[in-house]
Amino acid sequence: MTPLIAIIGRPNVGKSTLFNRLIKKRLAVIATKAGTTRDRIYQDVLMEDYNVTLVDTGGLEYGKKESIEADIQAQAELAIQEADIIYFVLDASQPLTVDDYNAADILRKSKKTLILIANKCDSKESEEGIVELYKLGFGKPLEVSAIHNSGIDNLFQSTAKSLKSLGFKEGEKEEEEAEKSDEIKICFLGKPNVGKSSLVNALLGQNRVIVSDIPGTTRDATHTHIVYEDTKFSLIDTAGLRKRGKIERGIEKFSSLRCFHALDQSDIALLIIDFGEKLSKQDMHIAEFILEAKKGVILVINKIDLAEDESQRDRYISMIQRKFVFLPWAPLVVVSALKRKNIRKIFDLSKKIIDERRKRISTGRLNSFIKKIIYKHVPSGTKQIKPKILYVTQSGINPPEFVLFVNSARSFHFSYRRYVENELRKEFGFDGTAVKIVYRNRKEEGKR
Q: Taking the CA of residue 89 as centre, how many other CA atoms within 13 Å lie in the half-sphere pointing to its CB?
């Protein structure tokens, strides 16, 4: 199995900065405000020829009474239980605190392989701080500055030695990436507090992400891997997308950007709707984002257990279908994350949609099809230019992409473009996924 390394420490010691430095991406949200990271964030990375899974966590901090703070601590403690190696990160520029000592006691009792990391070793204050870290009883700390990229090579080397002593074998990055290319990536989108994290946990069968009735609990996009009926899935939970005008500057702004990045990485997006709630413009905006990204789509009505009877449920479903009439090809599923009702249908639908997204149609069949629909409905144009479709070919999959070579792309009215897509779906399917149809002038052939 791939070794798991958890980054542990009290809030604001630079755990997320170190995490981003090690994975060479800005995945975890970074801010000077303590407690920015709430969920466990997983990312695979290559360290000295070892494939490892790195976990960023919320800080270990005590004396808090709020339930959300207790949840953060529970998430960090779960990461400790799962980990093979623990990076215990401390701020070398600050004196040790009670929370540092408490965290040290927890980590000592875990009896896990531990690497003590003195972060922020880029100031005069850090010299005295490094000496003080010996009081924790973990020996000499590794001196790093995550923000300035110093000491990272030493950390990689120390990690490789620990992995070797634990019996893990080196692996090829290419093999791991090839294996994961078959993974179906599902992104959970919706307004805040519609039950995205609850649904992720229900599908996983465990509390992997924090669930709370406080809107905005999830700030980072969390990736979790699961196998269902021999098919690999990556579940990407995201922060709730608010109206653009209501997105606060700072952490919430960064979280929204993570949502769009998570959507870009995914194959299929779940648009989650809270049963009984009125649809808003924001729900429509999220649907537009998914369409623009050309992803697979499943409309998910959550909290169906709140329905008083079948007639109320049916009326609500009919209303949703009317509002999303521009997504007639998107399947709709009603679930209860709380009761874990009908949730496995999401996996089954996703498998069907990914098959549709990877479908290829031969050029011969496509051109026979295009002749047939032109015979049924000839494109009309202006007096100067009569639009003609010369031939068509499929140029890509996931999403399915088609190029129609024409005499004048600008002459095709949007209603005829819609007609072509509707007929394409009637003929070849592509249920559950957006398709991309490009109209290209004949003289542009060969250009991308």
A: 29
The structural domain count of the chain equals: 3
Inter-residue contact 372 to 258 (CB < 8 Å) = no
Check whether the bond before 192 is cis (ω within 30° of 0). no
Residue 329, token pair as written in the block: 């090809």
C-alpha 298/C-alpha 25 separation (Å) is: 29
Q: Are residues 353 and 397 in the same domain?
A: no
Q: What are the start-end ranges of the H helices in 331-362? A: 344-357
45 DSSP assignment: E
Output the tens digit of pLDDT for each of the chain's 448 residues: 678 888 888 877 888 888 888 887 655 443 333 444 444 467 778 888 888 888 887 656 555 544 434 544 555 566 677 788 999 988 888 888 887 888 788 888 888 899 999 888 876 667 777 888 888 888 889 999 888 888 999 999 999 999 999 988 886 444 444 344 688 999 998 887 788 888 988 888 866 544 445 444 444 446 678 888 889 998 887 765 444 444 343 333 333 445 666 787 789 999 999 998 888 887 888 888 889 889 999 999 999 988 889 999 999 999 999 999 999 999 999 999 989 999 999 999 999 999 999 999 999 999 999 999 999 999 876 667 889 999 999 999 999 999 999 998 888 988 999 999 999 999 999 999 999 999 999 765 444 4
Residues 338, 370: one domain? no
Asked which of 324, 357, 390 is the last residue of a domain, the reply is 357
331-347 residues labelled b (16+ CB within 10 A) or e (exposed): bbbbbbbbeeeebeebb
Kindly state whether residues 236 and 273 are assigned to the same domain. yes
Residue with tokens 């199995």: 1
